[in-house]
Amino acid sequence: MGGRLDGVALVTGAGSGIGRSVAIALCLAGVTHLYITDINEEGVSGTSNAIKSVLPQSTTPEITTCLGDISTPEFVAELFSKIEHLDYAVNCAGVLGENKPTAEVSLAEFDRINSINYRGLWMCVKEELKLILKNDVTPYRGFTVTKEEAEIRGQRGAIVNIASQLGIVGKTQASVYTASKAAVLSMTRSDSIDYSKPPHHIRINSICPGVIQTPMTTSEDGKVSERLRDAISIAPMDRMGLPSEIADTAVFLCSGESSFITGTGVVVDGGYIIN
């Protein structure tokens, strides 16, 4: 599993933004079959069309679209009943919370955020692991000095969870959201301890994006949400990140080029957390 990802991949939350860019990037990297899911039917269709528009027809992978809500066990069961084999999974589905301090957040809002950002992601990871554990360990296919080195760098597959810079640092009036993303990071660390070591050889990592230019963070006319302006200015690079920058990181973490990286949260935030 070198730079060319020639297996089967799943992207949740693929209807727009980061998820859509990750889906496109995985196809450009060479996956042969891509499963994409989102609650937004128009978004899933748009992602499928975007993939077909950037890849020649001869190299476009088989694409299976699955419409549904990953916070519901019924949909998660339906989704994974369709997937017989899996090499890579990138879990992008997530929602922002209301801009309120804890004392003003309703239980319904708490449950909404955590049912998607943490519980839904956990349910997907559980099923992804079951599938990837069925794979043989594939030697690394990039450059190595010896055959033994290629064997050492082999893996059954890889999982990438989209967390957030706010899973590492705090933010005013965002305690429920930040905690949901911290949970993703903690789960990633613990799962990597259980599954990265022999005989499993499954690497599990998270990405911690900063403020990324997506439909969730900008209005229809492309203007930045007022609540995000301060966060953008805190980062030394003083700009929003692009979904493609997160997608590139996801492809790297799936590929054999990152064969000694597991259990970490790769921060892609323009320097936000160092300030």
Protein model, in words:
The chain has a seven-stranded parallel sheet, with helices on both faces. Strand 5, helix 6 (175-195) and strand 6 (202-209) form a beta-alpha-beta unit. The chain has a single domain (8-274), classed as NAD(P)-binding Rossmann-like Domain (Rossmann fold), CATH 3.40.50.720. It is globular. The model has no long low-confidence stretch (mean pLDDT 94). It is built from eight helices and seven strands; from the N terminus they run E-H-E-H-E-H-E-H-H-E-H-E-H-H-E. The chain starts with 7 loop residues before the first strand and ends in a 7-residue tail after the last strand. It has helices spanning 17-29, 41-54, 73-81, 107-132, 147-152, 175-195, 229-234, 243-254; strands at residues 8-12, 33-38, 62-67, 88-91, 157-162, 202-209, 265-268.
Low-confidence runs (pLDDT<50, min 5 residues)?
none
With helices defined by DSSP (H or I, 4 residues minimum), what is the helix count?
A: 8
Q: What class would the helix/strand composition place it in?
A: alpha/beta
The CATH architecture is 3-Layer(aba) Sandwich
How many extended strands?
Answer: 7
User: In CATH's first tier, which class applies?
Assistant: Alpha Beta
- CATH homologous superfamily, by name? NAD(P)-binding Rossmann-like Domain
**How do the strands of the widest beta sheet line up side by side?**
3-2-1-4-5-6-7
